[in-house]
Amino acid sequence: MKLFRATLLAAAVLCATSAHADDKPLKVGLMLPATGTYATLGTAIENGFKLYVDENGGQLGGRKVEYVKVDDESDPAKATDNVNKLIKGDKVDVLVGTVHSGVAAAMAKTAKDTGTLLVVPNAGADAITGPLCAPNIFRTSFTNWQPGYAMGEVMAEKGYKKVVTITWKYAAGDESVNGFKEAFEKSGGEVVKQLNLPFPNVEFQALLTEIAATKPDAVYTFFAGAGAVKFVKDYKAAGLMDSIPLYGAGFLTDGTLKAQGGAGEGLMTTLHYADELDVPKDKAFREAYSKAYSTPPDVYAVQGYDAAQVLKIGLDAVKGDVSKTADIAAAVEAAEIDSPRGKFTLSKAHNPVQDIYLREAKGEKNPMVSVASKALADPAKGCRM
Ligand code: PHB
């Protein structure tokens, strides 16, 4: 009788546990910018994420997905409070975010401390898959180093010798320029001046005057969102477009060409996505995204879509039990992700190992010119896992 009761009890506990995993909705905390210079990037990521979840019956790992949203305003000063609100207040199962490297670094620190599952669908902060790397942290975008490094090789090959860089003074800008400089100087080029302004300022005039006076062979830049729109327009209006060729990480022209109103025509950039790729998954994705949101997708939409894909791969392996970090990590590490950008895998540090494309802006598109760097892996300096 005692044994029978014990068995019953064990069965009840087992039922309760699996019922918990299967039946309870999966709370996804979307921490993204809804205001400020990166607002449109946040929207595209959210749209991409939701498109994938909808294509999978509104579920991930067998659990119905529910969303809790926070506007992080791309403000690092508010990041820790925002992420704690999601983890402790809303008790989310999974964190997805964000765009800004400084905000995402704070999210990664908290995720590492608490063990909360985190998928980063944009921010390139090298540290997230460097010193902050952890079994429960994944990124579906890039490191800031990656597009910069690829462009350093491209511009050296084009024969430029002296380049000025210009960007926002924070992790994304600094690391993008560092990646560029590493590859460019390795091939004999020289970065003669590094110009900066605080994020998200857009008073470029004095710096453009300095570029004109310095007369470099070319300029390398990292700007994104509304700031990229203003920068390209100002560069053109200053009469520099024809005299000092402008290059950049692809964020300069991704999702921004329409608003640039033709000023960005012909700009060459490097990125892990491009228009008109010969990738079957991309064709289906572009059609579904355009139909759902009445606007074409960009790199941010792809990264959001792939964040949901990565979560599904991990959560399917554990039937939705987010506490099984090691099994989730093992499943994701073994997977090939069927992305619209082309298939990619995640490195041991959980950052995409991916092709970086050279693209040229034409109308409102960034078609691929060539593969600038095949299966480029970030060096993941400082990652111990
Ligand atoms: C970043 O802060 O890491 C960042 C922001 C916007 C981009 C790319 C990177 O388009």
UniProtKB/TrEMBL annotation:
Record-annotated Leucine-binding protein domain positions: 25-362
InterPro entries, per database record: BCAA_transport, Leu-bd, Peripla_BP_I
Keywords assigned by UniProt, alphabetized: Signal
Signal peptide: 1-21
Record carries keyword Signal: yes
Statement: the UniProt record of this protein carries the keyword Signal: yes
Family label: Belongs to the leucine-binding protein family.
Protein name: ABC transporter substrate-binding protein
